[in-house]
Predict the structure.
Amino acid sequence: MHEYPVTVRIVEIASETAENNNGRVRRIDLVVGEDSGFIGDSIQMYFDVIAEGTPCEGATLHIEGVKPMLRCEACGKLFERKRFSFQCPFCGGDGGPTEIGKEFYVKSVELEVEE
């Protein structure tokens, strides 16, 4: 349910961008990490409803998912955690958490500008 206010803000940001450039939004690229706390499918569902009547109506929302990564404490390499394991697939060391996979931001807004 917390995706609703976030989606409202995404539409506001993109709409403001379109209005400032005398255009309409054609595409929004959004980055959503799997550990961000947000669900891409819910954002997509809300987007289609919230965008109605705004410069975002009819725009495509492209969501780029980011898988969480661990960093090996022994060799320093990044790796995707396997279920029930924190073991590094490169050296067998223990992996620790990183910020990778917690991302959530509007990457770009593509406009159709009226001349």
Summary: The chain has a mean pLDDT of 96. Helices lie at 3-20, 40-50.
